[in-house]
């Protein structure tokens, strides 16, 4: 099998790849937020280059998947499917393969790779690894309900399912290879659409980075021009005119108001009117 040389199941490495991708996205997002608030362009440039490299890698992955689907597991091996089924189904140490076949036969409603006769020359049948009296696995039988688990199949009629001649009401007649290829094509389209969406998303991030740099530069130019304008106004202003303008900002009456009796003769010449009453004055 293709995964015989791997120390762990393939999905283990898929999980590690997804974990690494998530951590990379979190790190890049943090770098982008930090670079936006920093005054310089160094972090923004690094952020731009990192996102650009990720975009190019994803585009390269999409091109490889389109040219060579087998490299990402999006193409079935038609030639070795029947041989793998006959050699590894229900064999000890290949429980993952057995569970995968049962899953496909249960949910795709099929039996064998090309048909049910693939099990006649299988190790499972020749060594009697299954229960006695079974010509096909129970996952090939029509189940009572569609939501029955593939690990615990419940056929509608087990005895009729195990007839030598195919019995469509009780056993799935078509093979799984064609349905698996259709499933692979659906997953391939989903994979390509996901790559396209991610590429568009990262392209939007790149454009936002460029716009942030332009906006930051314009903001700095505006601040610099505002400071220079205020400096020039203060330098060209006459200091004497500024003092005179400040002195005449308000009328003199607001600074000092004469009292009501300021022009009274008694108040201005008290000696002349000494001893005289106010009525005479």
From TrEMBL:
Q: Which InterPro entries match?
A: Tetraspanin/Peripherin (IPR018499), Tetraspanin_EC2_sf (IPR008952)
Q: Does the keyword Membrane apply?
A: yes
UniProt-annotated location(s): Membrane
Keyword tags? Membrane, Transmembrane, Transmembrane helix
Any transmembrane segments, and where?
12-34, 41-68, 188-214
- According to UniProt, the name of this protein is Tetraspanin
Q: How does the record say this protein sits in the membrane?
A: Multi-pass membrane protein
PANTHER family associated with the record? TETRASPANIN, TETRASPANIN 68C, ISOFORM A
- Kindly give the Gene3D superfamilies that the UniProt entry links to this protein: Tetraspanin
Write down the superkingdom of origin.
Eukaryota
List the record's Gene Ontology CC terms alphabetically.
plasma membrane
